[in-house]
Amino acid sequence: MLDDIKKTLWATADKLRANMDAAEYKHLVLGLIFVKYISDTFAARRAELTTRLTNPGDDYYFENASTDDLAAELEDRDYYKEVNAFWVPEPARWEALRSAAKQPDIGKRIDEALTLIETENPKLKGILDKRYARAQLPDGKLGELVDLVSTIGFGDNPSTARDVLGQVYEYFLGMFASAEGKRGGQFYTPASIVKTLVAVLSPHSGKVYDPCCGSGGMFVQSEKFIEAHGGKLGDVSIYGQEANPTTWRLAAMNLAIRGIDFNLGREPGDTFTHNQHADLRADFILANPPFNISDWWHGSLTGDPRWVYGDPPQGNANYAWLQHMLHHLKPTGRAGIVLANGSMSSSQNNEGVIRAAMVDADVVEVMVALPGQLFFNTQIPACLWFLVKQKTQRKGEVLFIDARKLATMISRVQSEFTDEVIERIANTVAAWRGEDCHSGEGRNLGIPAPYADIAGFCRSVKLPEIAQHGHVLTPGRYVGAEAVEDNDEDFAVKMQQLTEKLGEQMAKGAELDQVIRQRLGGLGYEF
Predict the structure, then answer these.
(1) What are the b/e assignments for 271-287, b being 16+ CB within 10 Å?
(2) Are residue 172 and residue 64 in the same domain, yes or no?
(3) Terminal C-alpha separation, the chain
(4) Do 100 and 197 fall within a single domain?
(5) Residue 506's beta-bridge partner residues?
(6) What angle, 0 to 180 degrees and rounded to 10, lies between the N-to-C axes of helices 245-257 and 217-228?
(7) Residue 31 has pLDDT above 50, yes or no
(8) Per-residue pLDDT tens digits for 250-270
(9) In terms of domains, do 439 and 341 share one?
């Protein structure tokens, strides 16, 4: 049901976009969804308070309260703060905006409402994107968009409202990323990749960090994982950083909608030169940094304490990201990072030296080769690095997984991992570590399944063998060829069957060629 609602909402919203670029339009749509959400949750809390304040059997009962007394009491902000609901001033409430949707100044009114909301809720300062008055939409389209968002019913239950709104917001993020193509990948990591990282890392509690957090998908998926495994919202502390100002706002809204407390730094900023969490040591790090960026270097980074395993090349940030993550891990911490395939084998500009030092220091735990066409923004083949600060199991070994053939195509240009494939990868790692496996629904099966190498899929390799291969970490080099099922058919028999089939197809082709010639000849064409 909700899937149908999401698709209908997207189709209608996309139609209203007219000729506006998707990169601009997404901020209008997602901003309105956010305002609708905080207004609905405010209204739900207000209705709950009205009931409780007038109920003699309730702790909140306001005895002998007049209508004016009750109205004044409902304006007490503490009631809303205690349930983590944002305070929404009356002119900024959704009903006020909806009633003015057909007015020519609706864009200006929305901007003013956002300013009021930010003023009343310091946590949202600088997060809401006030661009509605200057939106380049045809007359009336913005009002129609307000009407469309008004149809999203979040219900009276704030937790249900949060879940519905969160899913709609997440769905729209993905659809906008797809519509934007290459640029879309700057703020959105496809869900199946995020799920794989989360499933392997198992971030049950503690500090979770993403130094290039995009729109916050890693955090959202971490919270889903925790809830699926019996934990609760708030078992993790969220820390992130993002350089792009508009993407930073998307992340803050995405987390605020879900009631997730977060620290994304005081402002957008470059993680390398303006590290806003310098003292942080995280339990888990999940990240999809931009691949192979060449313009990251600044002179102030020379001799930086993060470069424990060697100075990263100034023309490629891949090994700067890897070392930044390791620097910010607790001694017991784990990190999962998406990088371009070249990071596993490149020996240019000190990269091979750094990789060798990392392998020899035993901080590389698992390497996963990914299929192509997983990303919106690039066809560059990618991989997953899983790092640890200090291994407690499998010391002196690295697990290699080759998942290149495990994707399912979901469109002509896009592929993904199914939940079954993600479960297979995660349980393979869990078995290798000696940990319990989990079902696709997140249930702990309580089975520390025995690990076994599987030709063509996974293999545990000791460090001396990796050194013999020049410290190259490409899984295909280690896992071997996939086992082929035994087939007792004689080669000569197979060859005869294939030859006969080819002969039949060639004969059919000749017949078709003759028919085409005859018909074209009837139209006056000569051969």
Answers:
(1) bbebbbbeebebbbbbb
(2) yes
(3) 59
(4) no
(5) none
(6) 20
(7) yes
(8) 888 888 887 788 899 989 999
(9) yes
Structural domain boundaries, residue 395: 181-479
Q: What number is the average pLDDT over the span 90-105?
A: 93
Number of domains in the chain: 2
- Tell me which of 178, 207, 227 is where a domain ends: 178
Report pLDDT digits (tens) over 416-438: 899 999 999 999 999 999 987 76
Question: 257: how many CB neighbours lie within 10 A of its CB?
Answer: 24
Same domain, yes or no: 147 and 220:
no
- The string of pLDDT tens digits covering residues 48-63 is 999 999 999 999 999 8
Cα separation, 238 vs 216, in Å, equals: 10
Q: Which two tokens stand for residue 218?
A: 């890693």
| Calpha distance 314→423 (Å, rounded) | 38
Residue 246 lies in a domain: yes
Pairing of strands 408-409, 236-240: unpaired
For residues 172 and 188, state if they share a domain: no
Q: What is the mean pLDDT of residues 70-74?
A: 92
List b or e across 139-170, with b for residues whose CB sees 16 or more CB atoms inside 10 angstroms: eebbbbbbebbeebebeeebeebbbbbbebbb
Half-sphere exposure of 357 (CA within 13 A, CB side): 16
Q: What are phi and psi of 6, to 5 degrees?
A: -60, -45
Tens of pLDDT along 342-390?
Answer: 999 998 889 999 999 999 999 999 999 999 888 765 677 899 999 999 9
Cβ of 171: how many Cβ atoms within 10 Å? 18
Neighbours of 476 (CB within 10 A): 13
Q: Please tell me the predicted confidence (pLDDT) of residue 225.
A: 76
Listing DSSP states for 285-312 in one string gives EEE-PPTT-SS---GGGTT-TT-TT-PP
Pair (114, 100) in one structural domain = yes
| Residue 243 to residue 108: CA distance in whole angstroms | 28
Same-domain status, 201 and 158: no
Query: In angstroms, rounded to a whole number, what is the distance separating the alpha carbons of residues 223 and 226?
Result: 5
Q: Give domain status of residue 490, yes or no.
A: no
Is the model more confident about 484 or about 161?
A: 161
Distance, CA of 60 to CA of 74 (rounded, Å) = 11
Q: What is the CATH number of the domain that holds 376?
A: 3.40.50.150
Asked if 203 and 227 count as a contact pair (C-beta separation under 8 A), the reply is no
Could you give the CA distance from residue 490 to residue 335 in angstroms, rounded to a whole number? 50
Q: Which residue has the higher pLDDT, 259 or 233?
A: 259
CA–CA gap between residue 63 and residue 74 (Å, rounded): 14
CA angle 426, 479, 483 (to 5 degrees): 100
Alpha-carbon torsion angle 232, 238, 242, 244, nearest 10: 40
In this structure, the answer to whether residues 274 and 420 fall within a common structural domain is yes
* CATH code of the domain in which 120 resides: 1.20.1260.30
Token pair in block for residue 148: 């469309």
492 is a domain residue:
no
